[in-house]
Specification:
By secondary structure, the protein is α/β, with parallel strands linked by helices. The protein folds into two domains: 331 residues, Alkaline Phosphatase, subunit A; 74 residues, 2-Layer Sandwich (Arylsulfatase, C-terminal domain), CATH 3.30.1120.10. The chain is 23% helix and 22% strand. It is built from nine helices and 19 strands. Strands 1, 2, 4, 5, 8, 9, 10, 11, 12, 13 and 14 form an eleven-stranded mixed sheet that branches. It has a four-stranded antiparallel sheet with strand order 15-16-17-18, with helices on one face. The radius of gyration is 20 Å and the shape is globular.
């Protein structure tokens, strides 16, 4: 149960109850992989529709350039180091995961009477105490970690020890070994549509973290060989189809005007796989780096009647903002005596050109949790391996022109802020979850 303080101020809600929330979170999708973000060969008609009818963000950041830390940040509203999940990704032989004491977005919403589901990739720990049903989700259907973790290992999953060959599909306590990955996107989508239909009369939260387009990429027979972008494009186009199925069922059930749908990804594209991976568009580098291509992601928010159609938000925003924003929109009380790093951006949803974050600072942490860069206004200072780089991202989105020599005072100021924040964060950090606590 959540501990709570004074009840929040009463806010206007829909006549038929609290709004529904859907977060669609892909894996390794690049900033340049969608039509509405400039891709010339991948057809994303449904995501383009979301952007035309909703709000597209151009400076939206995730909190890590790899899977596990990024997912922890989304569901807790915190930098990964604050919740102990900052040291790269969890592997099948690990015995750690998200701490049971952490309050996830799903737990927050359960307290408000929401029915909750996680349908897709989890990757915050695979032992029973770390799985979605123990962290606020009434229903879980998906895979416990990345779809490329295919080594045979002995592992305790739930209460049973298995010799498994991944991927593994879990449905609450049911385990399916070595599923045909060509059908994973379709199966997840069918389950998501079923969940929405079954809960159409009550507020619900659907978290849909797609396992793809993480390598290896797969698509069903309806999409294989159909994209001009090859296998990667096939996979993204099937994810776009999945988004269309979600939007269509909301329209069919009359839920669109009472449902916020958020689409984004966990980190940038896996460039080392060349054409089997994605594109960061004009951004530098990709997954695993703190250059813009690793941590700036496409993000679209759709809520007909609440979010103005066809708008673009250029404010600095982050995946950590989703937690406090949904808390506000659901009349939830944030956890007491718990630091949340995200900001409530609900005002931006209606007024995306509001300059409400002129003084906002964002800290870039490496895939192993080291402070490597800081963003303040248009300025980004990178300090990886003592290599100093200063960029004006408003004028140089591709990080080509290092201005450190022209602005030495600014370099010193931003460097000081970065390490002061990191030192404070380490002092306040909460422990990772472990077996046998």
């Amino acid at each position: 149960m959540l501990s709570s303080c004074a009840a929040p101020d009463k806010r206007a809600t829909e006549a038929n109850g609290l709004p529904n929330f859907i977060i669609i979170f892909t894996d390794d999708l690049g900033f340049g992989d969608l039509g509405c973000y400039g891709n010339p060969t991948i057809r994303t008609t449904n995501l383009d529709r979301m952007a035309e009818e909703g709000l597209k963000f151009t400076q939206f950041y995730v909190a890590s350039p790899v899977c596990t830390p990024s997912r922890a940040a989304l569901l807790t509203g915190c930098y990964p180091k604050r919740v102990g999940l900052h040291k790269h990704v969890l592997f099948p032989d690990y015995t750690t995961g998200i701490n049971p004491d952490e309050i996830t977005l799903a737990e927050l919403l359960q307290e408000q009477g929401y029915t909750t589901a996680c349908i897709g990739k989890w990757h915050l720990g695979h032992q029973r105490r770390f799985l979605p049903p123990q962290h606020g989700f009434d229903h879980f259907f998906g895979i416990p970690f990345s779809n490329d973790m295919s080594r045979q290992e002995q592992v305790i999953m739930g209460n049973t020890t298995y010799k498994y060959e991944l991927p593994v599909i879990l449905e609450n306590d049911t385990i399916e070994l070595d599923p045909d990955q060509r059908w994973i996107t379709r199966r997840l989508t069918e389950d998501a549509v079923r969940f929405i239909k079954e809960n159409k009369d009550n507020p619900f939260f659907l978290y849909m973290p797609h396992p793809m387009p993480h390598i290896p990429v797969y698509a069903s027979s309806d999409f294989t060989g159909k994209s001009r972008r090859g296998r990667y494009g096939d996979t993204v186009e099937e994810i776009d189809w999945s988004v269309g199925e979600i939007l269509d069922v909301l329209d069919e059930l009359g839920l669109s005007d009472n449902t916020l749908v958020v689409f984004t990804s966990d980190n940038g594209p896996w460039l080392s796989y060349k054409t089997l991976g994605g594109s960061a568009g004009p951004l530098r580098n990709g997954k695993g780096t703190t250059y813009e291509g690793g941590m700036r992601e496409p993000c679209i928010m759709w809520w007909p009647g609440k979010i103005p159609a066809g708008e673009v938000c250029m404010e600095i925003t982050t995946s950590m903002d989703i937690f406090p924003t949904i808390a506000y929109l659901s009349n939830s009380t944030l956890p007491v005596n718990t630091i949340i790093d995200g900001a409530d951006i609900h005002d931006l949803l209606e007024h995306p050109d509001s300059a409400i974050f002129n003084d906002r600072i964002f800290y870039y942490y490496s895939s192993y949790g080291f402070p490597e860069a800081i963003r303040s206004g248009p300025w980004k200072l990178s300090v990886r391996n003592d290599n100093i780089e200063l960029y004006n991202l408003d004028e140089d989105i591709s990080e080509k022109y290092n201005l450190k020599d022209q602005y030495p005072d600014l370099v010193d100021e931003l460097r000081k802020k970065l390490f002061e924040f990191d030192n404070e964060l380490e002092r306040q950090a909460r422990p990772i979850g472990t077996i046998g606590e």
